[in-house]
Input
Amino acid sequence: NFLFLWLGQLVSNFGDRLNQMALVALVYQRNPGNEVALAKIISFTIIPVFIIGPIAGVWVDRLDRKKIMVISDILRGALVLTIPLFIVLNQMLPIYIVIFLIFSISRFFIPSKMAIIPDLVSKDKLLVANTLQDTTHMVGNVVGLMVAGFIVNIRYVGAIGGFYIDSATFFVSAALIGLIAMKAR
Output
């Protein structure tokens, strides 16, 4: 069961890095050299931490964590799919709103992921599972950013293709998490 979670997060973490690089590419395409435009888009990824984060933790403790994770991934995947449409329509305001929503939903996913690990592994393997999860996340950030930067820089992929791939990673993660068999409480 932990393997499904770990694989899902491996894929999802890459998608998150791809999303970051696609956002940077989008800002660069629309406003080359404009640091304010980049700061604005990044702020929509950070604001949910302060607004939604405190509320999300309370709900995660009361609801089914696996369902929260699957629903979160499906919602985020669907929302990411809308970004290329808004790019084509040259509409930045809806992109800011979508980014805010994606990162708000992530505030439910992250504590669910951390809280579900003790339900998936025995107490004696909890330290190893948490360490593997954290180490994979950190290594995935570094490697993921490099690979994502390369992918987004491919002429026929670009920011739009990056968002499509990111969306697919959310759906793959949801499917893998859906395979987790939870023990009865």
Notes: The mean pLDDT is 88.
